[in-house]
Fold this protein.
Amino acid sequence: MTEQRTAQATASQERLDGNLVDVRDLSVSFMTDAGPIKAIDGIDFVIPKRTVVGVVGESGSGKSVTARSIIKLLPETATTAGAIYLTARDDGDGVDVLTMSGEQLRKVRGGRAAMVFQEPNAVLNPVFTIGWQIEEGLRAHGMTGKKQLRAKSVEILEKVGIPDAATRVDYYPHQFSGGQKQRIVIAMALVLNPGLILADEPTTALDVTVQAEILDLLRLARDEFGASVLIITHNMGVVADIADQVVVMYRGHVVEQGNVEQIFYHPTADYTKRLLAAVPRIGEKLVVHAADGHIVERGVDWRAEPVVVRAKDLTITYPGRLMQPDFKAVDGVDFEIHGSEVLGLVGESGSGKSTTGRAIAGLQKVSGGSLEVLGVQMNGVRERAFKSKRAEIGFVFQDPGSSFDPLMTILENVAEPLIVHGVYRTPTAAQKEVGRLLEMVQLPKAYMNRFPHELSGGQRQRASLARALALKPKLLIADEPTSALDVSVQAKVLELFKTLQVEIGFACLFITHDLAVVDMLADRIMVMHKGHIVEHGDANTIMRHPKDPYTRKLLASLPVPDPREQRAHREELRRILKQEAG
Amino acid sequence: MSESNETTVGVPGDTRLEHLQISKPEARWRKLPIVRDLRIAVGWQKAMLVVGLVITAFFVLVAIFAPLIAPYGYAQIKSADGVAFPTQAPPSREHIWGTTVGGFDVFSRTVWGARTAVIAIVVAVLLSIFAGVFLGLVSGYFGGWVDRVLVVVADAVYSFPSLLLAILMAIMISGGQSSLWGGILASGISITVVYIPQYFRTIRAEVIRIKDSAYVESAKVVGASTWRIMTKHLLKNSTRTLPVILTLNSSEAILTLAGLGFLGFGIEPTAAAEWGYDLNRSVADVTAGIWWTAVFPGLAIVLIVLGITLIGESLNDLADPRLRARKSAGEVVGSIEDTSVDPTERPNSDEPVVEEFMTSQDPQIAVVSRDVPDESRGVINDD
């Protein structure tokens, strides 16, 4: 340690052997109310020139902190040790970023390394035109001259694929779609021609079809602009699609680093192996082994079971603002859910899939058509008539962070349905039953005295499942139950889900945007697009032989967690897109 | 649950391992607003809070023990043997802070005044908090025209000067010159009317924020009644910012009471001691070089307002993780956050005691807690 300090003091300039960034023995810790927490513990890795380096790992493994350290974008409570040498793209001498401050750091940020964040809406300032925002970076790095600035912004917008850039440079952020906004953010990063682009989950907030375009754009940044890209993601498909090098992080350590083929085909670290095994892939049905070794399988045939939900020409509209027409979220949809069947509902954001689920649970008013849930007509239903049926419906929410009342213990939260429906009078009386429920979802009984924030995301989602199943419902609606979870946690929750479905035999509407997850679980799949059901049928048929062009595009956009296969897959997508265009 | 017995590892009779507690079940009182804030505060924020608490506690104690502390009554102008007090006498052994133009003992009046001030605070806060919170809940949760009407009314009331309202109340309640309760109610009610909108606004904003959160929807799906949702989920979760407004309003209550007294609409000196009234009577003294009649009641007003405001301001800062100061670690220390759900996935799961840190998803709360290790590893025996 002392050796390194002296080395650092004598030479903050360092030869990097052609690498752009050299991270050496980096440690970062944060001061929190409960004492210091180490986020990164002595990591080393390099970013070569003109390469895409993918950093993968669970949430909390230190991925984002690593990226932010490279431009020293850390909060005041952070303390760092080690060194990060960062070179400009054309000279070989690196400077230690961690020792910089003020003016120097400002030059490095944007000039040598630029950052692209997860949520483009939060990055773009809504009250300035996008042209102004792109120019801001140029002005900050000493470029003046109105015409020159404007020409430069238009040029970069054209390069990132914003159509009609010369007029749209004067548009405001809200006039662009989510994918276009992310393109603009990438344009802001590229305009200063930095050697390194740090992309922190750049596609997580976007739909798969848009994700494919953004990944193409980042590839362009490498090939045409000659920049290196550090891409942080938890999605192994994205890594397989874009990365040349992969860094696997776990609990603040780098467990493995290598080129993408080596990581995917010959992983050495146990953690990498486990991570890859947990990634859901299309065509892999979920097989769960019970404790005694035999495969958990449903006994009944769902096709013979009675229908629990029947929708006919179901329409749900949101009233428009003043002078604007109503928005039809769900537009004339027909479907049925049989008892003990798992129906997968797939679609991108805004397709109306969540609205459909909420309508079945009575959270959303039905505006037209007919929706029969457990024999009750939901169009014009009164809460009093539906209340008794609520005991037979369970709902699992997407965000495990907010689905529990933060001021109530897990016991009180899980016991809520039991109390509301008069099975028990107080949470204390329900203690035994809640303990049994927690054991059913594989949580220790002692957890019932904890508060929700004391549980991790996966644990909370299990508890959420326990609450939804407390009254042994006939119907469970799961609205993206695993999308906020890490892959390894997701795999465990899905296994649990399957086991319980077999055991209890509830019918399930499984809403998700992840085709691979739905393929693992569902008997039948419905694909929704802009409020319509575009395809509807047996899970295997839809996944193997999609008929609708939208389904085909959706399937082709989904990156496969296998670099070689993904290359072929990408060509397939290009072909479909070309077909679509002309 | 026999959990409290199981939380220590060690041999009975051996005290050396007692500090190795796996979890310290937090006592309820340690989670109360001010107590909790006092524990997490550091540096100047802690100093501010402590100073505020000390000053406020001092005044509360003075108010409670006023009969024991004050040598004379608040309206006393004669000593026990019937001799009248001197008027405008400078501080002496009999009257340590001197006497006023009316022959009152300044020290006794100031001490008794604390009692009036504290009662005024309690009345003002009690009157406004219930109505404000209730209206905020209803307005925020139901929305629609109820919400619109209430917001407009609240805005209208908010724009009304509180002192003017207080004068109006004082005249209505007791025709201007009033008794102890008349004066307190006048200031209390005027404060109430003006501050209901404040509580209303804060609670309404919080309710609107949380009413679409998954746990409220989850209660709806379960079939919980509106009353249950409002009292069980919304009420408790929306009162986070109340301590701050509460303290700031308390100081405002005192200033209004003092303002009323100073303008001559306060409490009769024979009904209760009141600092504003004393200040008013001492205006003429100041030019005559008689300082003691003005300084002490004035100082009392400044100090109590300062104390309460300090508490309020530091609570405000501490409630926001972005404003909250933390000690700097100085060097890279600390254990690594445990992110795995499954104990078998932990790389060092054979360690006897693993401390688990988990941060809440909500950056607004950002609570970090020290956790009990998994029961599955046999540390805790549940039954």
Remarks:
- Confidence is low (pLDDT under 50) at residues 1-12, 16-24, 338-383 of chain B.
